[in-house]
Specification:
Layout: E1 4-8, H1 13-24, E2 28-33, E3 47-50, H2 56-66, E4 70-73, H3 80-85, H4 87-107, E5 112-118, H5 141-159, E6 163-169, E7 171-173, H6 191-199, E8 206-209, E9 221-226, H7 227-242, E10 248-252, E11 257-259, H8 260-271, E12 277-280, E13 289-290, H9 295-301, H10 310-328
Parallel strand pairs: 1-2, 1-4, 2-3, 4-5, 5-6, 6-10, 7-9, 8-12, 9-13
Antiparallel strand pairs: 9-11
């Protein structure tokens, strides 16, 4: 059995894909999740302990029994418009929860940490594509909460022998190519998920928020990365740390941006459904464009994405959505 890896939020969308990938690589995995948005059936490798990161005493018990060698931390609130409405909830879940986790790690001598960060830490960057050296200037509480944790990690690594990797995700999409996992939250708000749910008739129409952004067609531009490629980025980061790598930050994206209207057009092609669209005002907290400069992770960690194709990403999401309906109904 390989190294013992504790995964927080491993019952959620991205976390469950990483847990599956860890299991396939022979790691000994324990998932810690409060199941507020995750699902126990999505944990396909190792055991699941239902625990909230705000419950520090239970977290201590988990560490004492499992004795992890590294922690991969996903557990967080992630919806940008919701963070604007509920900032205290986001800072509590995302910052206080992480501080609890880091303190318990320190108490138990765990020195390897992988953090689920986000392109939202950049805010509205001056240059596209965005390099890791770009100053952090988040424009919503979600991004601010993640930037705060990154600051903590940087300070902590300077003051101790804990090493970390922060992975700044761009727009994660798609589903497990083997059909076992995908986005299962009813409250999911990501564009590609909304497209396939509208195509499946689960939603009456797709909202497009804002058509007056300073982009070629007036809609937001994003860099979409397949969730399984992102899972492999976590494996690469974990192996890097276990091999003695020092603390670092990496963008996770493909380096190509698509506008909302481009995604909708391709989603209609892939699904074969001309689903209805309604236009609405901009949502608070949405930057016009987020596209990764993602060469560093390829060069430093040897990450090689396999699914850099928007039609394929949408196709896996579509296949999962048709299956999800049968699982949850």
């Amino acid at each position: 059995m390989g190294a013992r890896i504790l995964v927080t939020g491993g019952a959620g969308y991205i976390g469950s894909h990483v847990v599956k990938a860890l299991g396939k690589r022979g790691f000994n995995v324990l998932t810690v999740d409060n199941l507020s948005t995750g699902h126990d059936w999505a944990v396909l490798s190792g055991e699941l302990v239902v625990c909230d990161l705000l419950d520090k005493e239970k977290l201590r018990e988990v560490f004492s029994v499992f004795r992890p060698e590294a922690v991969i931390h996903f557990a967080a609130s992630i919806i940008v418009p919701e963070s604007v409405k509920l900032p205290l909830q986001y800072y509590t879940n995302n910052v206080v929860g992480t501080l609890n986790l880091l303190n318990v790690m320190r108490e138990h001598g765990v020195k390897k940490f992988i953090f689920s960060s986000t392109a939202a830490v950049y805010g509205i960057p001056a240059d596209i594509p965005i390099k890791e050296e770009t100053p952090l200037n988040p424009i919503n509480p979600y991004g601010s909460s993640k930037a705060t944790v990154e600051r903590v990690l940087k300070d902590m690594s300077h003051a101790s022998d804990i090493d970390y990797v922060a992975l700044r995700y761009f727009n994660v999409a798609g589903a497990d190519p083997e059909g076992e996992l995908g986005e299962a939250k009813e409250s999911a708000t990501h564009l590609i998920t909304m497209c396939v749910r509208t195509a499946a008739g689960i939603r009456p129409y797709l909202n497009i928020f804002g058509t007056d952004y300073p982009t070629p067609d007036g809609t937001c531009v994003r860099d979409y990365i397949h969730v399984s490629d992102l899972a492999e980025a976590h494996i690469a980061a974990l192996e890097y740390l276990l091999d003695g790598g020092s603390s670092d930050v990496f963008n996770c994206g493909y380096g190509r941006g698509y506008s909302v209207l481009e995604v909708v057009k391709i989603a209609k092609k892939v699904t074969g459904v001309d689903f209805p669209v309604e236009y609405a005002d901009r949502r608070p907290g949405d930057p016009p464009a987020l596209v990764a400069h993602a060469q560093k992770i390829r060069d430093r960690l040897g990450w090689q994405p396999r699914y850099d194709d928007l039609e394929y990403i949408i196709a896996t999401a579509w296949q999962w959505e048709k299956k999800r309906v049968t699982i949850l109904l």
